[in-house]
Amino acid sequence: MTSAPTDSERVELANTALYEAMERGDTAAMDRLWLNEPGADVSCVHPGWPVLRGRSEVLRSYALIMASTDYIQFFLTDVEVSVNGDTALVTCTENILSGGPAENEGELGPLVGQLVVATNVFRRSGDEWKVWSHHGSPVLAGREDDEDDAPGAEGDGAGPAEPTV
């Protein structure tokens, strides 16, 4: 007999569903995942973007990103979930692989990798956990403990990575 998932497990599943919807370009799923309650304005910060406020503006931004991205895949690492009552906080690293338009029909365009640290806030809505806020910030430098191997470390001649959107 299996036990019911904990709130932390359910929040982590909701967080994964957010990224899966983005990978599939599924605007209907994205619409279902975001909080839709009176007085609970949602917000979103995509890397390099200003703060987007309001459900329609946030969902529009995702629709625009999905429509202009031929390929995107997220590998989530460093996932930490914290639940306090009806609110949950997820922090993670988005290891993103994305592709631009192909030069020739039927081919895959060039692939680009990017690291983004993200904070996703969820609210319990009935029996489900819904996204209340997303904030993504590009990783421009390595961790202090990775200093010798990080781009921009002394001796390699490279500076911090340029942010991409």
From TrEMBL:
Pfam families attached to this UniProt entry: SnoaL_3 (PF13474)
Protein's UniProt keywords contain Isomerase: yes
UniProt domain SnoaL-like: residue ranges: 11-139
Any GO molecular function: isomerase activity
Keyword Manganese in annotation: no
Positions of region (Disordered): 135-165
InterPro entries from the UniProt entry: NTF2-like_dom_sf, SnoaL-like
Keywords: Isomerase
Top-rank taxon: Bacteria
Gene3D superfamilies attached to this UniProt entry: 3.10.450.50
PANTHER family: NUCLEAR TRANSPORT FACTOR 2 (NTF2) FAMILY PROTEIN
Designated name of the protein: Ketosteroid isomerase-like protein
Organism: Streptomyces olivoverticillatus
